[in-house]
Amino acid sequence: MPKEIVIYQNKSGAIEFKGDFQKETLWASQAQIVALFEVDQSVVSRHIRNIFKDKEIDEKSNMQKMHIANSDKPVVFYSLDVILAIGYRTNSKVAIVFRQWATKVLRQHILEGYTVNEKRLLRTRKSFQELQETISFLQEKSKHKLLAGQEQELLNLLGRYSKTLTLLEKYDKEKLSLTKKGKGKFVLNYEDALTVIEKIKKELLSKKEAGKLFGQEYDEKLKGILGNIYQTFSKKELYFSLEEKAAHLLYFIIKDHPFVDGNKRIGSFLFVYFLDKNDYLFRKSGERKINDNALTALALLIAISDPKDKDKLIKIVTNLSQ
Predict the structure, then answer these.
(1) Each residue's pLDDT tens digit, 214-247
(2) Which of 11, 31, 296, 319 has the smallest C-beta neighbourhood within 10 Å, fewest atoms?
(3) Rounded distance, CA 191 to CA 212, Å?
């Protein structure tokens, strides 16, 4: 989609135009280039003809037609290489300032060996900080008696989580710490949830793995939790993505104890059921995103966690669910 691109900035302010990123380049129409350098379209057209005629730039790989809104026919777009070449051929005040900026950046790149993208560097620092905090969090919780025997699974969780926060992934894709990708169509309503819980209870009772108090609800607390997951503010969902809804469903059921008995098991099963009904439980390879052992470890982590660690746990679950 089009993005606002700041080409350079001087005391008068920034000069911007809209373009499309494709394979590490930028594409702009003649009209956008005209606006960028503040010259007549005939000037830009002449420069483009001469650039391709002189074979300064390969025409085939640096020009393409794209469909845009409110246009009956495709519009020709030119690559960043063409834009730069026009900038060095154009005689206007704006083009002069542009060349001064471009020369300064090129000189800095040659002398220092690199140019620094401060925004991306900051994101990278934040990703490493978040990873360090998660490592410390899991190390601390692994000492809890309820997590005895879960050490290997915690290491596996950490390995999976750290993979989503690698430097290259953050740098190339500029991912947010809180994963917000999936959009589910299935809505888990209160009546369906009760039906599912009743089926779980019958199965566990037949195996003698649950008692009569399993799944007995306190004052429709589950109804309140489901309402929280789908709550809106100014007509916008508070938890917009599928991952956020699933993570909060798991967290709220375990931490808010809506049932007399079986909160961790019910929360875990509804979490899996919710992802499955939204066709989001399995990877393309057929592997489950969060297997039973990992889910057990997550449920125990949530159960023993301090409420102040809620956001950290939600981030862990959302990243593992992608």
Answers:
(1) 999 999 999 999 999 999 888 888 888 899 999 9
(2) 11
(3) 20
